[in-house]
Write a structure and sequence with these properties.
CATH class: Mainly Alpha
Strand content: under 5%
Order of helices and strands: HHHHHHHHHHHHH
CATH superfamily: Tetracycline Repressor, domain 2
Shape: globular
Oligomer: single chain
Structural class: mainly alpha
CATH architecture: Orthogonal Bundle
């Protein structure tokens, strides 16, 4: 969820770390150039030059120019999934998901200036905001699978990792597009899940989206992690009606 995490939690060897660093540098260059000049005036050539790579290298990581503006961290969903699975057994699935995402947001907050610029770019180009939201939603199935796996582990049932989830993690580690899975595969994965994991993943995804939209409109007043934490607190409390002001 940030352009590059210091934790490097996705792991991998030196080559994979370099790939992730290059992808992150391209995404950061795209955001900074768009914030300065406007999205429509930024070219692939300019992004590549700012990141210190060739145009050919750019297209090794992104299919289109707009992909670079929204690919803020291709490894985030891998880290969130791992955090959900590794969370203390005493945590409920909801709290495990909240803590996993909160950790990502806490690290993202350390790069507040870049977050601010990215929010400005998204506000100025609504089509990019839609793409960003779609990118969050593309990870929803994998999060639901992690929740389901955690529930199975807590119940004593044999843990199993779906082949599709393993493939997704490997794909992210190699910096390929998270949208490479076909819609049929996505539907099959969802159909294999129970209602609770799907609902929790959908609620978490929605919480991120609504928190982002709310924060974008109130950056001078609120921090994104605080907004997200409040959103999840409301969910955990059963969405009680707010007091009349």
């Amino acid at each position: 969820m940030q352009l590059m995490s210091g934790r490097n939690a996705a792991g991998g060897g030196l080559r994979e770390r370099k790939k992730r660093a290059t992808r992150a540098a391209l995404a950061e260059a795209a955001v900074r150039l768009a914030a300065e000049h406007g999205v429509e005036k930024v070219t692939v050539e300019a992004i590549s030059a700012a990141a210190g790579v060739s145009v050919r290298t750019f297209f090794n990581y992104f299919d289109t120019r707009d992909d670079a503006f929204v690919a803020v961290d291709s490894d985030a969903h891998v880290r969130v999934r791992r955090s959900v699975l590794d969370a203390p057994a005493a945590l409920s699935p909801l709290d495990a998901v909240r803590e996993a995402i909160r950790t990502e947001l806490a690290e993202a907050e350390q790069r507040h200036e870049l977050w601010r610029l990215h929010a400005e770019v998204l506000r100025a180009a609504p089509h990019l905001l839609v793409r960003r939201i779609s990118a969050h939603m593309a990870d929803e199935t994998e999060l639901a699978e992690a929740v389901a796996e955690r529930i199975r582990a807590r119940s004593g049932a044999p843990a199993r990792r779906s082949a599709s989830a393993a493939a997704s993690a490997a794909s992210a580690a190699s910096a390929t597009s998270a949208t490479s899975a076909t819609s049929a595969t996505e539907e099959e994965r969802r159909a294999a899940l129970d209602l609770y994991p799907r609902l929790l993943a959908a609620v978490a995804t929605t919480a991120v989206r609504v928190s982002l939209e709310h924060w974008c409109a109130r950056q001078d007043e609120l921090s994104f992690p605080d907004v997200f934490q409040e959103a999840f607190s409301l969910l955990a409390a059963g969405l009680p009606a707010p007091p009349v002001r």
